[in-house]
Amino acid sequence: MNTQNLSSKEIYSFGFKNAKKHFWSFLVLFLVYLVASFIFMPKIKEDETISLFQGILYIIGYIISIYLMMSMYSATLKIVRGYEVKMKDFFTWPKTGLKTLWTCVVSVLVLLPAIFVGGLLFGFLGAFGLMAGNAIAVIIAIIIGLVLLIITVHLAIRVSFSKYYTLDTGSWAIASIKKSFELTKGRVWSLLGLVIIGLLIEILGLIAIFIGLLWAIPTVLIAQVYIYHLLMGGKENQLMEDRSVAPIVPQPSELPARSLANGIVADSVINNPTA
Fold first, then answer.
1. Rg of the chain over all Cα atoms, to the nearest angstrom
2. pTM to 2 decimals?
3. Helices 52-80 and 97-132, packing angle to 10 deg
4. 246 pLDDT band (50/70/90 cuts)?
5. 204 within 8 A of 60, measured Cβ to Cβ
6. Mind telling me which residue stretches traverse the membrane in this protein (predicted)?
């Protein structure tokens, strides 16, 4: 596929097909998450004070959630790359998990200035306009809010593939964010269209209550990772996770001819394999 023209039909068809193939693995993962949330993160009433024990439970719950999220990202990337993915892969912490988690944090920090400034200006001008009965201030507040919303969405798309790049290559946050900017350069509008389609799929899944989300969430996630895979060139690159375990071995036809250092004897692996 030409990555300059991302096909929404192919991308989400790929996502749906693989979500169907790995339906039971995603289902078990979601059930484990729901059970963990029920046990470790119960709903607390507004007037209820959180005890030390409840706080510890919440911390454990968040750790479990992060573990499951990173494992799901890793398994999804393997699915997209054509690996044979088993149930255990959905519960295996990737070697680049901590770096990926840090990249997620830094990516959110990149968005915070626009969100903070936008919310502050919108709230201040909006409140001032309403209190003073100044329609111009209200209009300015709305315009500023819309502009900063556009900037935030733009930045969110530009950094959206950074976590996958860290997970894939083991790069640190800044390098991964730079790579994400490189991958999304000139493609923001087409990627925004794909994001909107994904949101619509999840809304349809939400309308169908629980069963629909079981299809929608994996479909959209796999589609997102598949987009990353295509933007990276669509190559069957080996994951950073598995390089130390199963290194790529080139085919004999890809091996270069070799010469001895002193140049007296030259042999070709291709033409004379027994040498």
1. 24
2. 0.77
3. 110
4. very low
5. no
6. 23-44, 56-80, 101-129, 135-157, 188-207, 213-231
